[in-house]
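Structure (tokenized):
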């Protein structure tokens, strides 16, 4: 993020930023022929807040923008992405309530060219109350309800609601490791497509460890769905989350297998702009089993002023009835150099390949991107970014292109 300020200490702050950006592209419609040269402008505001007291824990991060296109390659459009989480109560209380909202954009079809006009926007609103009882010095029983409403900005057909509950037993082996066993059931309904309604059930066992440098969670279980119409869909589920930090090296691994549907998909997890398995495409309504894996390595000792990262991801979606199965892999890296406390530069490179089941009648494609940027922070909370960006998509279909961009962004934080 270009903008940042620390307006309070001890993790309690409110950051507000304004950004103005303009860029020039030689292929605004990302066409393999008859590309349009165009200036594209961005106007935005960012809000971030972190507040905690003895009862509340609030975490907010939103980015609102408007995009304008000088040659009309796309209509002017505003959009919002970000997260809101408010927890009333603490883990040592008898009860707490988590209220959350997240918003992400996603391509309307997995093989579409990544233009703003081809994106929909998904909101997820959730309420999760929890009551807990301590049955021994190391054992807790928890009853957790969960309600969520998922809505799309442009396609109401994908809107859904989820209502369910989980029974959780937690056992603390020590101050650093614990085990949880969870049984959950959720009713999923689609207002405009009731034939897709189904019941989701799962039983999970998880073991977590948190040490000074190493933290990990291993979870295994079984999940299944029982639809209003059609056959039961079931299979094993697992989750692996691990991080290791030596100060100079940072490693992280995240892997999951679970049953979901193309309304909820990945549940808006992860950074909106991240390069990884968390980015979603929408697709047709169906249930699917998703397998994902993300691996990242950060190295801070390449030189005194350098930082380096390498990341890779894998995602496979196995649809229950539709022939829309998709397989995606990606590899990325970034190298940053700090000229001073105020000036820095960064080079990022990434490539991903996505292929589809033959029945889907979609062409496999590969997209490669390179971006070089220079950032400077002035003493009056004004910041400047200059960048150049090159992108290339290869495909046997007509959806292939080359595009070069150059631009700048001004940001003011207060």
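Design, position by position:
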């Amino acid at each position: 993020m270009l903008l940042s300020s620390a307006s309070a200490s001890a993790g309690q702050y409110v950051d507000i930023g304004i950004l103005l950006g303009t860029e020039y592209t030689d292929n605004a419609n990302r066409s393999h022929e008859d590309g349009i040269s165009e200036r594209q402008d961005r106007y935005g505001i960012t809000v971030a807040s972190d507040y905690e007291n003895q009862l509340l824990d609030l975490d907010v991060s939103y980015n609102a923008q408007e995009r304008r296109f000088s040659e009309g390659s796309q209509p002017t459009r505003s959009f919002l992405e970000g997260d809101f989480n408010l927890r009333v109560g603490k883990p040592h209380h008898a009860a707490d309530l988590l209220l959350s909202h997240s918003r992400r954009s996603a391509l309307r079809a997995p093989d579409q060219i990544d233009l703003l006009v081809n994106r929909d926007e998904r909101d997820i609103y959730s309420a999760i109350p929890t009551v807990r009882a301590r049955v021994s010095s190391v054992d807790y029983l928890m009853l957790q309800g969960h309600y969520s409403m998922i809505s799309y900005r442009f396609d109401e057909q994908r809107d859904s609601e989820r209502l369910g509950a989980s029974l959780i037993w937690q056992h603390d082996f020590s101050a650093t490791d614990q085990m949880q066993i969870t049984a959950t059931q959720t009713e999923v309904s689609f207002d405009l497509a009731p034939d897709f309604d189904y019941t989701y059930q799962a039983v999970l066992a998880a073991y977590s460890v948190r040490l000074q440098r190493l933290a990990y969670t291993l979870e295994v279980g079984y999940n299944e769905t029982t639809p209003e119409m059609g056959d039961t869909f079931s299979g094993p589920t697992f989750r692996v989350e691990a991080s290791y930090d030596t100060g100079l090296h940072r490693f992280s691994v995240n892997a999951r297998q679970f049953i979901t549907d193309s309304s909820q998909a990945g549940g808006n997890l992860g950074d909106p702009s991240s390069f990884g398995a968390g980015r979603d495409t929408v697709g047709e309504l169906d249930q699917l089993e998703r397998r994902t894996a993300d691996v990242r390595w950060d190295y801070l000792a390449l030189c005194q002023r350098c930082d380096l990262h390498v990341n890779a991801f894998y995602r496979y979606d196995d649809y229950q009835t539709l022939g829309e199965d998709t397989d995606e892999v990606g590899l990325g890296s970034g190298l940053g150099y700090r000229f001073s406390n105020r000036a820095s530069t960064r080079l990022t490179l990434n490539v991903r390949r996505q292929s589809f089941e033959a029945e889907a009648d979609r062409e496999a494609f590969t997209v490669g991107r390179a971006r070089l940027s220079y950032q400077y922070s002035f003493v009056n909370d004004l910041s400047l970014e200059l960048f150049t960006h090159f992108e290339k998509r290869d495909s046997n279909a007509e959806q292939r292109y080359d595009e070069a961009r150059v631009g700048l962004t001004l940001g003011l934080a207060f």
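Reviewer-requested clarification: The two ends are 15 Å apart (CA to CA). Confidence is low (pLDDT under 50) at residues 1-10.
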